[in-house]
Amino acid sequence: MIESTDTLSTRTWLSIEQAAEYTTFAVVTLRKLVYRGAIPFYRKGRRVVFKREEIDSWMDTSRIEPIDAEKIKREVDQLITRERKQGRPRGLEAT
Q1: Tens digits of per-residue pLDDT, 42-53?
Q2: Are 58 and 19 in contact (CB under 8 A)?
Q3: CB 51 within 8 A of CB 40
Q4: Mean pLDDT throughout 3-25?
Q5: Which residues are bridge partners to 15 per DSSP?
Q6: Any domain includes 93
Q7: What domain range includes position 71?
Q8: Average pLDDT of the residues in 23-28
Q9: Separation CA 84–CA 82 (nearest Å)
Q10: Residue 10: pLDDT above 90?
């Protein structure tokens, strides 16, 4: 039976199937993360369970900052200017 995400977000403990639905990861992906010890989990006998708050924290630590295109352009322009001041021809690698 598939639970709604609202129901899953109020649970403290999640089975691997519930954690997969909650995170939108495949069960096999979660099993690999458990095997590698890359995700917080608990084991009760052979059963693997997850604490929802720990899953949330783990997901938050995986955040990638958005790219600032203007910052990258400024850095590239500065690099080009520096290379030109050092007398290196544009488009040729230094030897």
Answers
A1: 999 999 999 999
A2: no
A3: yes
A4: 86
A5: 49
A6: no
A7: 1-88
A8: 96
A9: 5
A10: no
Confidence band of 3 (pLDDT split at 50, 70, 90) = low
What is the spatial distance between Cα 95 and Cα 92, in angstroms, rounded to a whole number? 9
- Are 22 and 14 within 8 A, CB to CB? yes
Is the pTM here over 0.90, yes or no? Answer: no
39 domain residue, yes or no: yes
Residue 70 included in any domain: yes
In which residue are the tokens 């990861």 written? Answer: 25
Dihedral pair phi/psi, residue 64, rounded to 5°: -105, 130
> Residue 36 pLDDT more than 80?
yes
- Quick check: 31 and 43 in contact, CB under 8 A? no
Residue 46 resides in a domain: yes
How many domains, the chain? 1
Write out the two tokens for 62.
């995986």
